[in-house]
Write a structure and sequence with these properties.
Blueprint lengths: L9 H12 L28 E10 L2 E10 L3 E8 L6 E8 L7 E5 L30 H14 L1
Length: 153
């Protein structure tokens, strides 16, 4: 399945995927032109009720501030920001304490380049020769099918 997406930004493409396919992109907030209005209209720290600076650590030779935030219901966010005038993220850990097994998501960031100018051709999908296209169900259809399957059991 493929869906047309608005031209212009990665943010618009992510919003389209979230709205039509229900795909969750854990790092969408970092791909926003305006992190205060990130896809899907929420920022990383929305809903945070407490936070603190833990300490300063070195990641790949770069001093970083280690920050900790709590976001009900049971989400802990840890963020390491470069300790310099850019303050770019180096690491993010999100732990869901209220879910079974307390799953977490870990992202490592490195080699930030704010001067890159990719061409449109770099965003054209070229599937491998042996790739097979599969059909994806839109969010509403997938949700309805899940409810019907649950009702039969």
């Amino acid at each position: 399945m493929s869906i047309p997406v608005p031209e212009g930004t990665i943010e618009k493409m992510l919003k389209e995927a979230v709205d039509h396919l229900g795909i969750d992109f854990p790092l969408a907030d970092f791909l926003s032109e305006d992190p205060n209005k990130a896809v899907p209209n929420k920022a990383v720290l929305t809903g945070v009720t407490a936070g603190r600076v833990v300490n300063t650590v070195t990641i790949d030779g770069v001093p970083c501030d280690h920050l900790f935030f709590f976001q009900p219901p049971g989400i802990e966010l840890e963020l390491w920001l470069e300790r310099n005038d850019r303050s770019v993220p180096r690491r993010l850990v999100a732990t869901h304490r209220s879910l079974p097994g307390q799953p977490n998501f870990i992202a490592e960031f490195s080699d930030w380049n704010f001067n890159i100018q990719p061409s449109d051709a770099e965003f054209v999908f070229q599937p491998p020769a042996d790739a097979v296209q599969i059909a994806l169900k839109p969010v509403a259809a997938a949700t309805a099918a899940t409810k019907r399957k649950g009702a039969k059991q």
